[in-house]
Amino acid sequence: MSIDTRKSAALLAVLETGSFEGAAALLHLTPSAVSQRVSALEAELGAPLVVRTRPCRATRDGERLVQYLRRARLLEQEFEAERSDSARPVPVPLAVNNDTLASWFLPGLSHFLATERITLDLTLDDQDHTYDLLAQGTALAGISSNPHPMRGCTAVPLGAMRYHLVAAPRFVRRWFPKGLIREDARRAPLLVFDRKDDLQAEFLERVLGLPPGSYPCHYVPASDPFRRAIELGIGYGMLPDQQLGARLKNGTLVDLAPDQFSDVMLYWHAWQVQSPVMERLKAAVQDAAAHALIG
Length: 295
Hints:
Elements: H1 5-17, H2 20-27, H3 31-45, E1 50-51, E2 57-58, H4 60-83, E3 90-97, H5 98-102, H6 105-115, E4 118-125, H7 130-135, E5 141-144, E6 153-167, H8 169-175, H9 182-185, E7 190-192, H10 199-208, E8 217-219, H11 223-231, E9 237-240, H12 241-244, E10 254-255, E11 262-271, H13 276-292
Parallel strand pairs: 3-4, 3-5, 7-8
Antiparallel strand pairs: 1-2, 5-11, 6-9, 6-10, 6-11
Helix pairs in contact: 1-2, 1-3, 2-3, 6-13
């Protein structure tokens, strides 16, 4: 069946703004008109597409439809951008994990972004959860630690980010004067990115046999403040090589377990059939990853 463009635009607007009122303002319609178009589309497809909560979210069928609608919209925008110099740059929604964005992603893509007529619409999440953003249709491509592609998609290995458990020297003197030992780790405050982040917990359970919840935690959900909190001696935690730089060599930070580390493999998830600009973006991401990650 052919989907009416006005109805599909109403659906996308509701899910992107989170409400029928926001969609109405975006489309210069009344909320009632937007609701009628979405309801008509649901009736035609024989399935509910929107969970009418605050904010509105897509149902399982809605997520699948939105994936295709956003890809179709990208192709239209890309065609217009190539056909006319006055056309707006093509917006590309991507899902990226926080540490990737804070380290190698933008420097590695700077030349590509300076020469291509696109704008990035980035959604951030933990590397274990960016996959969900693709499944929901929030992003057209993204970086995830999940090696399994969705149906109709590919998962291309990019390389691994290597994480080390580190602390400031004064923190080590106070909490780990005898080195990283189990009993001291029960008392020392650990820095954790957020409640989705299990990187530190997995490391302490593997190395010290400490179960999650058996030690105090600070939660600092931003990559640069997270690193800064470690440098300030507020807690200890895991940082990737890309954020460590020369901090271990110059003594700013101390590796608490020099022979132990955690490698997080990253994958580029995208649809098997991509537009030309998405293919070029994929190549740019792979090139940047090849210079920044462990192969």
